[in-house]
Specification:
A hairpin with a 5-residue loop joins strand 15 (about 240-250) and strand 16 (about 255-260). The chain starts with 10 loop residues before the first strand and ends in a 6-residue tail after the last helix. The protein has a single domain, classed as Roll (2,3-Dihydroxybiphenyl 1,2-Dioxygenase, domain 1), CATH 3.10.180.10. The radius of gyration is 18 Å and the shape is globular. Strands 2-3-4-1-13-16-15-14 form an eight-stranded mixed β-sheet. The chain has an eight-stranded mixed β-sheet with strand order 6-7-8-5-9-12-11-10. It is about 20% helix and about 40% strand. It is an alpha+beta fold. The chain contains five helices and 16 strands. The longest helix is centred in the last third of the chain and has 13 residues, at about 215-230. Bound molecules: zinc ion (ZN). Zinc ion (ZN) binds next to strand 1 and strand 13.
Length: about 300
Amino acid sequence: MTQTYSPIAGLHHVTAISGPAQANLDFYTRTLRTRLIKRTVNFDAPEMYHLYYGTEDARPGSVLTFFNREDDTRGRAGEGAAQAFAYAVTPEALADWRAELGGTRFTRFGAEGLALTDPHGQAFELIADPDAGPWGEFHSATLWLADPAPTADILTGVFGYEYIGEERGTGGTRQRYALPGTAPGRILDLWRADTPVAARPGPGTIHHIAFRARDAGHQMALREVLLARGERVTEVKDRQYFKAIYFREPGGVLFEIATDGPGFATDESMAHLGESLQLPPQHEPRRAELEARLPTLDV
Ligand code: ZN
């Protein structure tokens, strides 16, 4: 297939579900020392926080967001969902993090890594990369699939990924795909476990992963190609900090394609990201009520 549009650049953000917001905030800002870059609500369910973390400059490819549920009834990773996200770190930093956090060491496609879980059971990894950028940029994400083939077809046929190889891991097989270029989060691993496990959404699981479109035109071109393939893609949704389209890929994982712009310094300045609750225009009239309902956070 001849592509008349550019490939995806890499991951834009990963959105997971956490338990109570304060423990989530403490872990990602105090323990992992990423920056709280946005404090808002779930636009589709504004009674819950939506906290965003990332690099100091809040760049796409570093953005990790959580729908923060005060009810911590855990979900379960399994087929049809993303299983883990991974940060890129230099080999020296990996050793420092291991001394600080513990975790389980692994080697994957020749790189050392550390497997960890956050306070609500979300699996994440630190993977050594000599070319790692600023702390907080993604290395990769892992999708857990019953059959990787149809997902791989979207990745290579539409998004511009290339097949890198396959590796046997503990309890399953991992296929690696990567995008050209040097953008963060340009690796995607497709994991197939030997024993089927169905995913159950809830705290400790990933809700969706978002890929980067350069701009609205790029996003629209990708949307047209996906629609022509029969994928059920949503209309463009205004997520305040980016424009987004969504579809459930054939393996069951919710995919989003998000634009780089306008970015996170739209409703507050870069110096003050995350310091106060930001509401989109549709929820601003409910500010007093929502602020009263949402738990107070010690930021
Ligand atoms: Zn998203």
